[in-house]
Amino acid sequence: MGRDANVKAQENLVENINEGDVDAAVETFAEDAVDHDPAPDQAPGREGFRVFWTTLTTAFPDAHLEGRHEVVTDDHIVAAYMLTGTHEGEFLGIAPTGKRIEINGVQVGRFEDGKLVERWGSSDELGIMRQIGAL
């Protein structure tokens, strides 16, 4: 598999999130994938990613990831991205506000055989809370 399979897996993850297909998106992750920067209360493994993405896309049903820059090696993909969406569902206990968000983030993913096995990342969660009026 290798580099091309890993790039395709990353592309599929973004495409499926943008289409709202969380189940297809989480197939990108290995069953026992490790998130070194998990969201609050995020469970381990693929199921933790499923719950995270379901929570995000329920709160922001028009969530859209746009890649800004990528650096690819044989087993790592570093991606800078922008996330946009409209707050139409509860998010971290905050009732829907109808406000738009636009934040930036960076993810480092380590892949094996076209599956994301480890993730490190940082998204502007404070920016989300400010933009929806929670702070």
Q: How many beta-strand segments? A: 5
Mean pLDDT: 95
Sheet with the most strands, sense and barrel status: 5 strands, mixed
Overall geometry comes to globular
Structural class assignment: alpha+beta
What is the overall number of helices?
A: 4
Distance between the termini: 45 Å
Spatial arrangement of strands, main beta sheet: 1-5-4-3-2
Rg from Cα: 14 Å
Strand content: 35-45%
> Helices and strands, in N-to-C order?
HHEHEEEEH
Low-confidence stretches: none
The percentage helix is: 25-40%
Task: Provide a descriptive summary of the structure in words.
This protein is α+β, with helices and mostly antiparallel strands and 135 residues long. Helices cover 32% and strands 36% of the residues. The chain has helices spanning 3-18, 22-26, 45-59, 125-131; strands spanning 29-35, 64-72, 76-86, 100-112, 115-123. A 5-stranded mixed beta sheet has the order 1-5-4-3-2. The radius of gyration is 14 Å and the shape is globular. The relative contact order is 0.19.
